[in-house]
Amino acid sequence: MNCKITRNAANVLRRELDKPENTGKKLRVVITHSHGDHAHYGLDLGEPTDKDEVVLTDKGIDVILARGEDLLDGIKIDYLYFPQEGFVITNPSKGNHGDH
């Protein structure tokens, strides 16, 4: 499975992961809703289970993805400051380039 994290997102995520209360936790991406050929995604912190795969990104952040979830393979995590500040998760490899 593949996951890409942009520089902006990595900076924000590292600040959160470096907090003492998050020691030992990893970033988890979940599907909050799916329909048709795309999904809507959410973020959480946690520890992997035997149903998960841990993917190491090029930004050095481990990401937990549910094994066998096709719509998680190829996701891109970005953090935008405009027009609204926050995380944006898409899956360009599946044709999902943003919410509709």
Automatic annotation (TrEMBL):
Protein name per Swiss-Prot or TrEMBL: Iron-sulfur cluster assembly accessory protein
